[in-house]
UniProtKB/TrEMBL annotation:
It holds the Pfam family Ala_racemase_N. The keyword Glycosyltransferase does not apply. Belongs to the pyridoxal phosphate-binding protein YggS/PROSC family. Residues 23-228 form the Alanine racemase N-terminal domain. This is Pyridoxal phosphate homeostasis protein. Pyridoxal 5'-phosphate (PLP)-binding protein, which is involved in PLP homeostasis. The modification N6-(pyridoxal phosphate)lysine is found at K42. Gene3D superfamilies: Alanine racemase (3.20.20.10). Keywords: Pyridoxal phosphate. The lineage of its organism: Bacteria, Bacillati, Actinomycetota, Actinomycetes, Streptosporangiales. It comes from the Bacteria. It comes from Streptosporangium vulgare.
Length: 234
């Protein structure tokens, strides 16, 4: 596929996504400016990220450090804001702290400690979102709802970190709107103690509209922008 054709393909995907966001905003009585679109570029090349930047995308998400760190280096200078959206192991924190502006998957105190240490060591400030396990199963990533407020307090009190808000993935087998309604209430509780923590990262290619209806501020969209993913090859 030629570069021009790929650009046209991505531009068409972006136009479809923006139309869907606009319609969902109209239905929810919200403004488009309230939402940040994060292009999740996992398994796609840095050339696609450059095209996205040319098309006006400013926020890019990745969920594997090995891929993300290389892409962030290759795309340095584009003025992008990098979001780490996957489960984060403590042995990857030093690398992630070197390029991620926002980490969406903070789900345990040990990760807060490690991120704080590495952010300070790198001389950076990293925005952190507390990931919520809406199905109550932290084994799939995320803190149990009853643990979220304490974890938010820990992030807010950690040097080098800034509490941004919360993140969640809709559980399999549950209507996304119902799950995101619960996230909205958890986010409201977090904001009572931390009024500046207004981010609700929710909604992907298949459930953007439900997320927007339930107060999402950040959408993590990959497939709808870039097409079906190929299997990741290490």
């Amino acid at each position: 596929m030629t570069e021009t054709t790929r650009r046209d393909e991505i531009a068409a995907g972006l136009a479809r996504v923006e139309a869907q966001i606009a319609e969902a905003c109209r239905a929810a009585g919200r403004h488009r400016e309230e939402l940040t679109l994060i292009a999740v570029s996992k398994t796609y090349p840095a050339s696609d990220v450059r095209i996205l930047a040319e098309l006006g995308i400013t926020d890019v998400g990745e969920n594997r450090d090995q891929e993300a760190s290389a892409k962030a280096r290759e795309c340095a200078g584009l003025g992008l804001r990098w979001h780490f959206v996957g489960q984060l192991q403590t042995n990857k924190v030093r690398s992630v702290a070197g390029y991620a502006d926002v980490v969406h998957s903070v789900d345990r105190p040990r990760l807060v400690t490690a991120l704080s240490r590495e952010a300070l060591g790198a001389g950076r400030s990293i925005t952190c979102l507390v990931q919520v396990a809406l199905d109550g199963d932290p084994g799939r990533g995320g803190a149990r709802p009853e643990d979220v407020e304490a974890l938010a307090d820990a992030v807010a009190g950690a040097e080098g970190l800034e509490l941004g808000g919360v993140m969640a993935v809709a559980p399999l087998g549950e209507e996304a709107g119902e799950a995101f309604a619960r996230l909205r209430e958890i986010a409201r509780s977090v904001r009572k103690a931390h009024p500046g923590a207004g981010v609700i990262s929710a909604g992907m290619s298949g459930d953007m509209s439900q997320a927007i209806a339930n107060g999402a501020t950040h959408l993590r969209v990959g497939t709808a922008l870039l097409g079906r993913r190929k299997p990741f090859v290490r």
